[in-house]
Amino acid sequence: QNTFAQYGIYAYANTAPTVGNTWNDDLESDLGWTYSGSGTYTSTRNVIASDCAGGSCITGSPNSGTNVVNLKVCAISSTAYISKTFTIASGGGTWTFWYKIGSESDWDFLQYSTNGGTSYTNIVSGCVDTWTLASIALSAGTQTLRIRFYCDNSNNLLGSKTIIDDIKITNVASTGTTYAGYFNGNICWTGTSGACSDKRYKKDVVTIDGALNKVISLNGIYYYWRKDEFPSMNFSNKKQIGVIAQDVEPLFPELIATDANGYKTADYSKITPILIEAIKELQKQIDSLKSENQLLKNDVESIKSQLGIINIRDDNKNKNIKVKKIQTAEVKESVNYEENNQQNNNSGIIEDIPRAIP
Fold it and tell me: Whole-model pTM?
């Protein structure tokens, strides 16, 4: 361990802090529990499960969020449980979780084990339809924690079901990770820091497909660290910016690593090639829209040109009609003039003819 306390930097090479953190699981994402059982059982992380055929006294909604642990047995001599291994730092810790139970009193039990199921301790039996907190002291060291719902061989099931929510374990130390080191503080350097990227190191190279749609599904967020619950992480009080590892993992699992206790890290540098391909896909869409837009412009210009020819023809037609009207008027005027002159001439001739002698 190398400590530079004056800079707020604590570096751990190939090991984890010996001071533990609080481990919280609201069950809204998978943090590595094993779900199992025996006989006819249901052990899941999901919305509250339906009752067995006999019904249940459990009503209402989760203690928080959407998901709970469902431990349900619909046949006698069956069990359902969850388990996970933790390492508790020096001084020991506390394991707490909230529960509801619907079972046959004094026969079917909610139980816990700190040794992977070698032995169990009863917590409660019967019907408890209000969210109730269980609290269990943990000693320092590595231990497999298990929550089990046990149904005996009695035929009186009473809708045997237990639901668990909001599990918390204090003073958890991370061990067995593949990290070369932990740095929980601010780091400043004047040189370069690069990832190995030479072509000669790589094989099976393929282009990232569908990057744009996946990027659109991601959310960039502002957030604050839960500093008080993770004191050994030396989190900052300042407002942060980033992503949620559990949101990124289904889309880009290559960016996410998970340590032995289920905590996830995101490799932000690897988002860059994803953005490169997303921008290229977006540019293709833009170029396609530009081409379509140009075609539409060409169609519009063609239509305008055709309309212009029609207008010219209409103008010429109107001019021809006007000319014909003028010519017709002139002809009529000329005819009238000739007729008038002819009438005048005829009158003169008539006057010159001598009257017949009676």
Answer: 0.53
